[in-house]
Automatic annotation (TrEMBL):
Residues 98-232 form the Retropepsin-like aspartic endopeptidase domain. Residues 12-50 form a coiled coil. One of its GO terms (molecular function) is peptidase activity. Pfam families: Zn_protease. InterPro entries: Asp_endopeptidase (IPR008503), Peptidase_aspartic_dom_sf (IPR021109). The keyword Protease applies. Residues 67-89 are annotated as: Disordered. GO terms for biological process: proteolysis. This is ATP-dependent Zn protease. Keywords: Coiled coil, Hydrolase, Protease.
Amino acid sequence: MEKAPPVPTLTLAELRNEISLSEQRLQTSMEQQQKQYVQQQHLLVQLNTDVTNMKESVKKVDSKLATLPPEPPKAMPIPTEKCPAPSQGHTVDGKLLVGEAEWIWVDAANDAFQARVDTGATTSSISAQEITIFERNGKNWVRFFLSHQEMDDKIQIEAPLVRHVRVRQASADDLDRRPVVRLAVRIGDMTEKAEFTLKDRSDMTFPVLLGREFLKDIAVVDVAREYIQPKPKLKDVK
């Protein structure tokens, strides 16, 4: 049989030294664990402090919120009613919009003519030649011929005599006595019976002049424009 190797023997000094080293290692390990424990306790205390402070902050916020007035209810939007856009050739209040020159339909002539719109003139005027006063059914009537330089033929018109007026000519001091007739006319979609003085306007640019008496309460003049209203046609006249 083989012999077991001899067990090494320690001297008393070596044994004491080994025990001392083990004690040192154990002491070092305990000190490290103690230090870690202390650090953990410090962290735990700090964490508890933070939690307490946070709770206090939440309480303060809740207290402030409790003192705030309740939020007012949101106002419901009120639908706005849009004003209808004015129809073409009219103002927002429904008046006829006319320019410095317009087309005018004269029922008695069964035709349309160019008219100058003049707010400086009181009465309206229509070109007339060969003016004759006559009697019909006991009333005075007027026969005249509507003529102008741009017209090929004269148009005979007969209408009741309304009255006579005296008009002072701009180039003379004398008063000119003129007959006045009432004629049905149309501008745009507006039909009116208007009074016209009879005067030879064949040498003027426009055979018809529209004054303030015709325009008041029914029309607004834009002197910067012309022919805002369309030219009337026979099929448009009712």
